[in-house]
Amino acid sequence: MEQHFPACFVELPSYTEHRRAPFYLAAEEYIAQTLPVGNYLFSWQLGPTVVMGRNQVAHQEVDLDFCRREGIDVVRRKSGGGAIFADSRNIMWSLITGEGAVEPLFVEYAEEVARALNKLGADVELSGRNDIVLRDGGKICGNAFYHLPNRNIVHGTMLYDTNPRLMQGALHPDVSKLQAKGVKSVRSRVALLKDHLTFGVDELRVRLRHLLCDRSIELDDRAVKEIEQIEQDYYDPTYLYGQSALSDVCREARIEGCGTLALHFALRGTLIERVTLAGDFFELGLAQETFNQTFAGNTFTPECLQQALLEHHPERTIRNLTTEALAKLLGTEA
């Protein structure tokens, strides 16, 4: 079986440190598409960020309104698995190899990282399909993978330290207000490497590089420009929020003086594709058209719904429907 370690470390220009996650995800693609077949590893760090798996529904995994308020970036990767929270106290690792069976590569990567952490003083072991945990409990590394033509990519998150308030708030949406079909992540108890090592996160990043790699290659400014072009695809709202089968969410109530009103939201992931009205209300204007124009294209979160409501006031097209009553129906009232 081919051995992928020690790998070749890919050095990015220093000015690319602490970019948004899509830059580094794009760098994986660039390396896979451009460099000769080989085994390449690089590391990166982020500001506060939630990275969702390929097939996840954003509003079921992430409190998008909390993230917006707290300045937490929300992105989607092309590998499967669950949503993770990362910040500058995490180390992200990316391994790009040639084609071949993924399962042994996945296992080898996790084993090599675990072996390196043990050498540095953290007593860790493999757990489940893709995790590295401390022997006394708690997940410190989660890993995922995906294919590109003739290449495999494995990437992982290493938890040295974190802000527990931001992690907890970002990864726990208010499912009592907004629910739709989809599979949710299984949350694991996490642990912190800082409690088991005698040095900081920057030193850990350097030491692991030397344990996992025996040579290096530098990317130049031209490569950065090409990576930035690939990066733009990750910001497409349809890619970020619309990655899911179509589902339907209904909000229905009988409102005094107005009648029965039902709002059917057709969702593509977390994007509202259209809104359909039903009920025995009386129209004062083009209610169906107005409600659809108000909400379609927005993300399905309480704050976005409330903002659209207050900006367009679609309730004015239905007799005796107040702003407060519609906000209550939507679940956006304070």
> Sheet with the most strands?
8 strands, mixed
Quaternary structure classification = single chain
Count of DSSP H/I helices: 11
Strand arrangement within the widest β-sheet reads: 7-8-9-10-6-2-1-11
Global morphology? elongated
Low-confidence stretches: 176-183
So, the CATH homologous superfamily of the largest domain? Bira Bifunctional Protein, Domain 2
How many structural domains can be distinguished in the coordinates? 2
Helix-strand makeup class: alpha+beta
What is Rg?
23 Å
Order of helices and strands: EHEEHHEEEHEEEEHHEHHEEEHHH
| Proportion in β-strands | 25-35%
What percent of residues adopt helix (DSSP H or I)?
Answer: 25-40%
Descriptive key words:
Enolase-like, domain 1, three-stranded mixed beta sheet, 334 residues, eight-stranded mixed beta sheet, BirA Bifunctional Protein, domain 2
What does the model show?
This protein has 334 residues and is of the alpha+beta class. The chain is built from 11 helices and 14 strands. The chain is 32% helix and 28% strand.
Task: Spell out the blueprint of helices and strands.
Elements: E1 7-11, H1 21-34, E2 40-44, E3 49-52, H2 58-61, H3 64-70, E4 73-76, E5 84-86, E6 90-98, H4 102-119, E7 124-127, E8 131-134, E9 139-148, E10 151-159, H5 164-170, H6 201-212, E11 213-218, H7 221-231, H8 237-241, E12 246-255, E13 259-268, E14 271-279, H9 287-295, H10 302-312, H11 323-330
Parallel strand pairs: 1-2, 1-11, 3-4
Antiparallel strand pairs: 2-6, 3-5, 6-10, 7-8, 8-9, 9-10, 12-13, 13-14
Helix pairs in contact: 1-7, 10-11
